[in-house]
Queue: 4 jobs
Job 1
Amino acid sequence: MIEKRLVTDWVVTTLETASGMEVGRGSVPRGDADPPFYLLYSVDTAVGGAPLADMSEDASLVYQLTSVSGPDPEVPQSTAWLSQLEWMADKARSTFLGRDPITGLWLHPLLIPGISCMARRLDVEWGGQPGGTSEQEAGIMTYVQRFRFDLTPA
């Protein structure tokens, strides 16, 4: 059986390392971080595919990643930056879907003992949402993407 918690840990750690930004698990990182940051939500899980005699189920896990851009704290009256928001979305896309052009291998392999990644894809990309949060007066913009990871026991 594939432990989702281990995959979630990998998603968070990999994106934080690749982007240099914090990732909150369903809430603002540390509870008080100012943007920019990412929010991660686990939105779908499907299991199946194992033969009757095999107790190891395949899993398809979907994570929603919300990039959050906000005002520059050094600039009074500033708001979120669309270019920063798009950079964050590009960074997430390249982190999870990027491949080495020579070998074809993932730039960020899923390194969890006992789990192999069969496929990764971008399920949904709703893009930038000006004022897409309840904090419109704070000048925050969000960008939503959903990534699917199809996994099998190794």
Job 2
Amino acid sequence: MHALGRGDGPTACGLLCKPAATSLATRQVAADCPAAVTSLSRPLNAEQRDSIAAAELTDEHVTPRTKNPLIPVNLPANPFDFMQFLVTERNGEWRIVRLD
């Protein structure tokens, strides 16, 4: 969320699995994931950027599932209207698989 708010496409897209990055680009009608991040962050005002920068996710936001490798992370209110990220661990790194 912080990278999205800053318009930092390389960082934000680096946290996404390829299908999620492609989906974001398609959703934003952008050439690629970094361009989609720019498109999302461009209309934000300073107050919205500050709010995103201050947002913290805690264990209360995570709904662990024991048999499903996809873990839902419920997001606080945000200007992107994302309600949840589905994350998974691959090769010791956490990646966002889907943005809802």
Job 3
Amino acid sequence: MDLYLLSAAGLSACWMLVHAIIGGRQCERPLAANTTLPDEMRETMILCWHLVTGMLALMALFLALGALGRRDMALAGVLLAAMSAGIGISVPPLRRLSYAVLPQGWLFVPVLLLGAWGLWGG
């Protein structure tokens, strides 16, 4: 069992729980209760929030399967972490926002590094 990939999987699972629990309270619930947004906008944002929850669960699963020897699944998990980090780190400056407002992309850097080390360096 690869401990780097297992660590990346555990960290991904942690971020999924943070997203589901804290993000649910801070983002999804207020969005669902908001009656001032058009239905299409509100419901699309809620759908995207749930899609991210699923993607985070898959990232953790893929990295866990990678820790058990499935290198193809590890690669999928590492690519999801790279995409999440890349988008999450590039969007705030593009939107002229501080990372204090949108720090989430940085959470995937350690997942990416641990996963990459487990996949290629370990």
Job 4
Amino acid sequence: MKKDNIQDERIVSQKRKIGSDAFGIVFYGLLISILIQQYMFDAPFSQYAAEFILFMVSAIYVVGRNIIVGNNLFSNSFKGQKMVVINSIVCGLTIAVITTTFNTMNYGFEKMGGATLIAITAFITFFCGALTSFIGFEILYILNKKRQKQIDDMYNDSDE
């Protein structure tokens, strides 16, 4: 007789949660590793290219799989467009703060042109980062809504 190993739903759910947590640790660890190597160690791209490629592939995979299966990437507590704008502003601020901080640390306050030029540079970086993020999030929002509509239509058609 063959003995089947039956696991209850709680055990399966816990194993999936542990795997998800491990992925999150590795994912954000790669991001931190990239930032440290790029800004603090002033390493050439070839030194952290593998981490960058793995980070981008895993990010694209997670977003792509969620869109394919029809999961809503944007919170239902806000309207989707509000979430796109909020995410864009947060990304722009994060990019501006990290870039300005590390550039000031690497080049020094005086070489950066003083407080006024640093503030202008930070604002321009924020604007460019927020705009680029907005375009990316808007594309994801449109693709996500389109896929959710396809799935809704598929299930609505089968009910009739």
